[in-house]
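Glutathione S-transferase: structure, please.
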Amino acid sequence: MLQILGKASSINVRKVLWACTELGIAFEREDWGSGFRSTFSPQFLALNPNAMVPVIKDGDFVLWESNSILRYLANQYHGQHLYPAEPRVRARVDQWMDWQATDLNKSWTYPFLSLVRHSPDHQDPEALAAACRQWTTNLQILDRQLESTGAYVSGQDFSLADIAIGLSVNRWFETPLEHPDFAAVRAYYERLTEREGFVIHGRNGTP
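Here you go.
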C-alpha cells in the first residue's frame, strides 16, 4: 500500500491526499513534521535530505517534491484524465503546476508566515506590503486565466494543476488580508467544492 509521510495540515501533503482521493488510491499516512516526528531525524533524512514533507513510499520506490509526486501518481495509477498524455495539453498542465511551485508559492510565503503563523521574523511592514502586492498580482493572473477558460486552470477539464493551485487559492482566502473581488477565482473556488477530495483535504479550514 502507498505510504505518505507528512502531517495532514501541510499544504503539500494535502496535495497528495487530494490526488489519492481523485485516483482512488488506498494509502497509509504517518505524521511527520512540526509537532510530530522530526523530519531532521536520520530515518527521515535518508528518505529526503531536504527534511521536507511529503515523502511517499510505493513499495521500494521513494519520492519527494509534492508536484513530482502528483505526476507520478497520475502516471502510475491510470490518471490520464488528470494528466493527459497529449504533449501540448500536458504542457499546459505542467506550466501552471510549475507556476504554482515558483511564482505563486514565493509570493504568499511572507504574508502567510506573518499573518497566520505570526512569525517574529516576518513582521516588517514594508516587506509584508510588498509581498501582499505580489500575491495579489499573481491572483489577478490566475483570475484572467480562469476568465479565459471559464472552467479550470489549464482548460475545460480538471487536472493536476487544479490540485496544486486550488490549495493555494484556499490559502489566499484563509489568510487575513484584503482580498480584491476576483470573480473568476471565487467562482473557481466554489466549483472545486463540488469535488470530494477538495472538501476533505482542501477547503477544510486549515490554511
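Notes: The CA atoms of residues 39 and 51 lie 5 Å apart.
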